[in-house]
Write a structure and sequence with these properties.
The chain has helices at residues 45-53, 75-78, 99-107, 121-131, 151-164, 181-198, 209-214, 233-238, 241-250, 257-261, and strands at residues 2-11, 19-29, 34-38, 60-65, 68-69, 82-85, 169-173, 202-205, 218-223, 226-232. The protein is α/β, with parallel strands linked by helices and 262 residues long. The chain starts with a strand and ends with a helix.
Length: 262
């Protein structure tokens, strides 16, 4: 589903702040893969997701999605077939619009706009049915502005919006990191449910090594712009946090406080 070929990226080339992030990085995701990505600060995790999403251009390399070359597509063009959930719950929704209006915008992603009524009664019922299983009471607050919701409620809503129209690729950039443990678990459970239900090809960055091990079918560890571990199947099931810590140490890879405390 996703092929990254020979990715190279250097920020601020030719200056004192030059930073080479990737040098000939390649990665392939099969259809339906749920890949968790771990690594310390500066490993290149978020930069990789941003380059896939089109936020940053490549210096060199090729990006294929379901066999189609999307390397030169702009971020807004890729957004038509990608879902993206950010670490900051405020980034995925519009504060001044209601819950129903946010969901309606997501429902029409990639479609032509018309002058017909924005939200039909059938859609309202659909949105209530989508929100009710969350147990957050949002199904009774469809007309309430999203800016009044808590961070966890907004992140759960963002996740629903990102998957309302089935994306070819779902990108999750530490989407539970800013939430309290209880709410983070609710959002992670919802993530697993949506990915499994629709067999979404998913790339999820996390600092929590336990979450990385128990979530998805494949785990990638990054360090200094390189993939130093790529495991799936039985190898992933049998791996432990201690194994990951030992591998970090063997590769002199940096560990940050969030990973250790997680």
């Amino acid at each position: 589903m996703l092929e990254i070929k020979g990715l190279c990226k250097t920020f601020n080339p030719g200056t004192i702040n030059e930073k080479k992030v990737f040098e000939d990085l390649s990665l392939t995701l099969n259809s339906g893969d749920f890949v968790t990505v771990i690594g310390g600060n500066g490993a290149g995790k978020s930069t990789l997701l941003n380059m896939i999403a089109g936020t940053y251009p490549f210096d060199k390399g090729q990006l294929l999605l379901d066999g189609k070359d999307i390397t030169k597509l702009k971020e807004y063009e890729r957004a038509a077939f990608m879902g993206h959930v950010f670490q900051d719950p405020l980034l995925g929704t519009c504060s001044n619009l209601s819950i129903a209006e946010n969901l309606s915008i997501a429902r029409r992603k990639g479609k032509r706009r018309t002058l017909r009524r924005g939200i039909t009664e059938a859609e309202r019922e659909e949105y209530r049915a989508l929100l009710a299983p969350l147990g957050l009471g949002l199904e009774e607050r469809l007309t309430e502005k999203v800016g009044l919701l808590s961070g966890g409620q907004r992140q759960a809503l963002t996740l629903l919006m990102a998957t309302l129209v089935r994306p070819q690729l779902l990108l999750l950039d530490e989407h539970t990191a800013a939430l309290d443990p209880k709410t983070a678990q609710i959002v992670l459970d919802l993530t697993n449910e949506l990915v499994q239900r629709d067999q979404l090809t998913t790339l999820m960055i996390t600092h929590n090594m336990r979450d990385a091990l128990k979530t998805g079918n494949r785990l990638i560890m990054m360090s200094e712009g390189k993939i130093i571990l790529d495991i799936n199947g039985e190898a992933k099931k049998q791996a432990t946090v201690s194994d990951l810590l030992a591998l970090f140490e063997q590769n002199n890879a940096s560990l940050d406080d969030k990973m250790l405390l997680g």
